[in-house]
Design goal:
173 residues, alpha/beta, Rossmann fold, 42% helix
């Protein structure tokens, strides 16, 4: 699937905080992986958001949840942390596209502005929007954490390994 014009491997970046990684993320990653040769999942350091999981834990969770996708379609998937401008990270990993998932109209408004800014800084890096599947449109990490902290059942929102780690983190093993 190399780009015939440049003989360059098609690399995409899917950025996020992934605190925790949820089924909506997994859906977008699986679908994005079919579109490119290499997908780099950028786990944002985002210490200002007060994450439930440390950066190392988030990296571990995302890596663990990628194994079935890699086994299914063979796309190279790398999971790495990043800090700073997304466009700088995209350049660093030689990405030609940024993948963003859209759940709502308000997501589109924000992502549209970001795509414009990124394009202005790096016109050779395209932003590709994938619509969330109807079964995952309402899932957000913030809501998953809130439901879990309040004792609710998050088993339909996150994969099993992430479920176990989230419940353990909250003392609900």
């Amino acid at each position: 699937m190399n780009d015939p014009a440049t003989n360059r491997q098609r690399t995409g970046v899917y950025p996020g905080t992934f605190d925790p990684v949820h089924n909506g993320h997994i859906d977008i990653i699986g679908r994005a992986a079919r579109l490119m040769d290499r997908l780099v999942i950028g786990v944002s350091i985002s210490s200002g958001k007060g994450p439930l999981f440390s950066l190392e834990e988030r990296l571990e969770l995302v890596r663990a949840e990628m194994a079935p996708i890699v086994a299914r379609n063979g796309t190279v998937i790398e999971v790495v942390s990043f800090e700073g401008l997304l466009i700088d990270f995209a350049r660093k990993v030689d990405a030609c596209m940024i993948v963003r998932g859209l759940r709502t109209v308000s997501d589109f408004d924000y992502e549209f502005q970001m795509a414009g800014m990124n394009y202005r800084m790096a016109p050779d890096v395209e932003t590709v929007f994938l619509l969330a599947s109807e079964t995952h449109q309402f899932i957000a990490s913030r809501l998953v954490k809130e439901v879990a902290k309040l004792g609710g059942d998050i088993s339909t929102f996150v994969p099993l390994f992430t479920l176990k780690r989230t419940l353990a983190k909250l003392g609900r093993e």
